Amino acid sequence: MELLGLLLLLLGSSIMANGAISELSWRKIININREGPYVGIVVPNAFELNPLLHSPAFVPHHKFPYFDFSGKHFRIGELEKKKVIVVMSGLGMLNAGVSTQLLLTLFDVKGVLHYGIAGNANPKLQIGDVTIPQYWAHTGLWHWQRLREVDGDFNKSFGYLKFANYNNYTKHSDLVTNLLNMIWYQPEEIFPVNGIPEVSHDIFWVPVDKTYFNIARNLKNVKLDNCVNTTCLPRKPIVVRVEKGASANVFVDNKAYREFVNSKFDVTPIDMESVAVALVCLQQNKPFIAIRALSDLAGGGSVLANEVAVFASLASQNAVNVLIKFISLLI
């Protein structure tokens, strides 16, 4: 760690003249990293972060409880006596990816845990259940096929959405051409940190860390909340490992699309951040896992109300309860 600190100090001094970062900031980063390595925790929003900060299991560092950099507030402390750095990313793929990259670039991080709430695409599960997928996909990277195109130079391995399958008939029951045609789901390009620069690898299903996923077997007995005031769920929520989750810069609140994603990809949680964190960790060769509590059946509730307005707080607390138990099991 002393060598790492010296290198950081030299790097900080060399680029300070360009105004990229101050020497004072580098000194703070060096001091923080001297006490590492840390487990990184990435959380999307304040209402998901607050239950963690209010938990007695989280203890801020007595000398440097936080470090502000590039619009991010990195909280340093211990969770279940494990050294952690917690960062709130903000909504969406861009914020999640940038926050994770900064976390891994600035700090000595040995693995990343991501948690929050999600929409549910799996009718076998209910609101309040906490899901831990083995694989994540970015379902917002598309090739939009031109109308009447027979073939194209795009990837066809992962399936398509044909908009005409969801047409309503006209009042005369006449079929009309859907000008939106089809979208084809595409893999991501990543450039592994231990690979050849500018040589990309394509990936659609991003795996979580095998060791982390095995640890998640031991989370079945975590106590989870069942009620919000006097509104209670039909049964007690459970923690369940599932095969697949999906992320995109889309808030899915549509029954038809939710059912399509579930039938096409066997997806359970749908969110807007997890795969961005997963892709950065994969590129940087860092262990990763995501814990997502289901806050609503995406597009399955009343047209007048969304379940997430009622159950977001319950789902957030359940996700934190599982996160705390998970990190207590890390060696």
Automatic annotation (TrEMBL):
Annotated SUPFAM superfamilies: Purine and uridine phosphorylases (SSF53167)
CDD domains in alphabetical order = MTAN (cd09008)
Domain Nucleoside phosphorylase, by residue range, is: 39-327
User: Has keyword Transmembrane helix?
Assistant: no
Write down the superkingdom of origin: Eukaryota
**GO annotations under biological process?**
nucleoside metabolic process
Keyword check for DNA-binding, yes or no. no
Q: Which UniProt keywords apply?
A: Signal
The taxonomy runs: Eukaryota, Viridiplantae, Streptophyta, Embryophyta, Tracheophyta
Which chain positions lie within coiled-coil regions?
none
Output the Pfam families linked to this UniProt entry: PNP_UDP_1 (PF01048)
Q: What is this protein called?
A: Nucleoside phosphorylase domain-containing protein
Which one of the record's GO molecular function terms can you name? catalytic activity
Q: Which Gene3D superfamilies match?
A: Nucleoside phosphorylase domain
- PANTHER family attached here? PHOSPHORYLASE SUPERFAMILY PROTEIN, PURINE NUCLEOSIDE PHOSPHORYLASE
Signal peptide feature range? 1-19
